[in-house]
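Summary for the lay section of the report: proteins are chains of building blocks that fold into shapes. Here we show the chain for Type II intron maturase and then a coded description of the shape we predicted for it.
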Amino acid sequence: MKAEGFRNLIQRLGQLKYMMERSLTKTLARKYRVRVSKVYQRYRTVLETDQGPRRGLQVTVERGEGKPPLVAQWCGISLKRKIRIGSLDDQPAQVWNSGRNEIVKRLTPARCADLMMGSKCITFDT
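The coded shape description reads as follows.
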C-alpha cells in the first residue's frame, strides 16, 4: 500500500472514530438530558493502555458489597501503524490431497456399494 493511501486510511478511520464518539456522547446527553459538553466533563478521562496513556470516555458504576465496579470505556485503541513484523512463514504447511473422496470411490465402475438393501450388493457399471 502506498504511503499516501495509508495516511488517507488513517485519516478516514480517525473521522469514523470521531463520529462514533460524538454519536455516543449525544446519546448519553439525550438520555441524561444534559449538554454534550457536560457529558465530556463528567466522563472524560485518561485511559492507561499498552501503547501508553490515551484520552477517552469511561463510565464506572459502583455495585454492592464485595462486587467489583462495572467499567465501560470508549477509545484507548491506537490507530498507529505497527512497523514490526513477526517472522514470515515462507514455507506454509502443505495440504496433501488424499485422492478421491468417499462418494467418488463408491461410484467408480466395478466397485460394490452396500446400500443396506438386504444382502444385495449393487455394482455400478459405466
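Put simply, here is one thing we learned. The two ends are 54 Å apart (CA to CA).
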